[in-house]
Amino acid sequence: MPRLATETIGTGDQSWLGSVHALYNARTVSPDPALFTLTTYPEKIPAGLPLGLVTANGLYGPYTGDGTDEVQTATVGGSGLTSFTLTFSGQTTTAIAAAATAATVQAALIALSNIGDGDVTVSGNAGGPWTITFAGALANADQPQMTATPTGGTGTVTIATTVAGGLDASADGRQVLAGFLVTDQKAPAVGGWPMLDHGRIRVDRLPVAFATTGHNTTGLFTFITSTGA
Question: What CA–CA distance (Å, rounded) separates 183 from 196?
Answer without folding.
Answer: 10
